[in-house]
Amino acid sequence: MTRYLKSYTNILALVTLFLLAGVQKGAGEENVCRYTMEISYPRGEISGLCIIRKSEDGGALSVINQFGIKAFDAAYDSRRERIRLSNIIGPLDRCRIKRIIAKDLRPLFQNADTAAIVIENKRFGIKYKFVPLRDVEQ
After folding, report:
1. Secondary structure (3-state) at 24
2. CB burial class (10 A; 0-12, 13-18, 19+) of residue 74?
3. pLDDT at residue 19, as a whole number
4. Whose CA is closest to 54, among 34, 27, 32?
5. Taking Cα atoms as reference points, which of 78, 68, 72, 79 lies closest to residue 100?
6. 92-105: per-residue pLDDT in tens?
7. Most CB atoms within 10 A, among 18, 67, 94, 95?
8. Helix (H, G, I), strand (E, B) or coil at 80
9. pLDDT, tens digit, for every residue of 18-31?
10. Is the Cβ–Cβ distance between 130 and 35 less than 8 Å?
11. pLDDT by residue (tens digit) across 38-50?
């Protein structure tokens, strides 16, 4: 029974995230970017959607895999240039992995671009690829 509740919670979180992203798009001082995302590392890969909300004082990021399950959330503080990860799936919920991901994703918040972004960590063999989604409404 709890398994079904978790899946409904994930679906509800996904719907809420998309609704909030749509509401935030109308706000003048914030910038919402949507990307298809792929993180490949030596033992596997994670792919799905990445929604980034950037503002003057920082931003937030949410990664949702292709099954609609949230992989992790991140909050960026521009004053400290620090990323804090939360709501991390089990395989990534290790202190060292969280530190590596937080450090690697920092350029994503610092570069406000709509072009494809590739970040590579050669030391650990991790490659992050972000390709912007095109708006269907146009």
Report:
1. helix
2. buried
3. 43
4. 32
5. 72
6. 788 888 899 889 88
7. 18
8. coil
9. 544 444 444 445 68
10. yes
11. 989 888 888 899 9
Closest CA to 77 of 101, 102, 95, 44: 102
**Tokens of residue 28, six digits:** 């003048």
In eight-state DSSP terms, residue 56 is: T
Contact 136, 126 (CB under 8 A): no
What integer pLDDT is reported at residue 122 of this predicted model?
93
Pairwise CA distance, residues 98 & 102, whole Å = 6
Backbone angles phi, psi at 112, to 5 degrees: -90, 85
Q: What is the 3-state secondary structure (H, E, C) of 83-109?
A: EEEECCCHHHCCHHHHHHHHHHHHHHH
Residue 21, SS3 per DSSP: helix
Pair of tokens at residue 126: 């991790």
